[in-house]
Amino acid sequence: MAVSISVVLLLLIIAVIFMRNGALKISHALICMLLGFYLAGTTMGPTIQSGLTATADLVSKLRP
Questions:
Q1: CA–CA distance, 41 with 44 (Å, rounded to integer)
Q2: pTM (2 decimals)?
Q3: N or C: which end of the chain has fewer CB within 10 A?
Q4: Residue 15 near residue 24, CB atoms below 8 Å
Q5: Is residue 20 predicted with pLDDT exceeding 80?
Q6: What DSSP string runs through 35-52?
């Protein structure tokens, strides 16, 4: 749960930065958000979730 909240916050921050710079319009952000919701409801949803979890686990084990 903590990983998904972190990913959502990171994506939200990136989207806000893009919108302030004019690189991302509100309509584009809404379409991307709807695509994410629809994609999560498909059979690809659990695969994407486990891939993100595995990536987060790998990154958390790296030492600088």
A1: 8
A2: 0.55
A3: C
A4: yes
A5: yes
A6: HHHHHHTSTHHHHHHHHH
